Amino acid sequence: KQNYKPVSHSDLGLPFQVNSALPAVDTKGNRTPAHIQLKLKKLQLQDERLSVVDRDNHLLASKLADIFSSKGLVDHRNQYHLRSLNANKRKHELLLVTHQNQAIYQRITSRQSEYRRQLWLDDWERTERRLDNISRYPRKPADKQRPSRKVKFAAVESSEPSASCRDSNTDSTD
User: Fold this and answer.
1) Is 54 within the bounds of a domain?
2) Where does the record place the region Disordered (predicted)?
């Protein structure tokens, strides 16, 4: 028979080995490549923003320096004169239109009328006389057509008809 000696776990040091055991499976994953970690576009945009901020800070600092050197007087009156960008062009067009209108007015006023008003008045008076002559009952003064517009002359106005009207009344060209 063989002599076996009973062996305990503590003799073998198993609890220590179990406690100090490391996992055999690698769960870390792949390493991210360097070109993805850097994000160059983001860095470029950040640099541009910083340069804009630096420029603005420089401008503000120069304005503050100007204020300090000018004893801090504030221009708060806002006396800005409005200035149109196309005022000269509009003025030129207005002058052109004015000259054209004056030329048209001169042409119209210098032209003699083609209508002979006096002939029309004489013809109307003859027509009224004919109507009076051929009518059965003579017309009253209220029935006669009144002029719709009174024309005032520079001379003294009178209620009697003028000499030219009296002459045309005496004419009997029927």
Assistant:
1) yes
2) 135-174
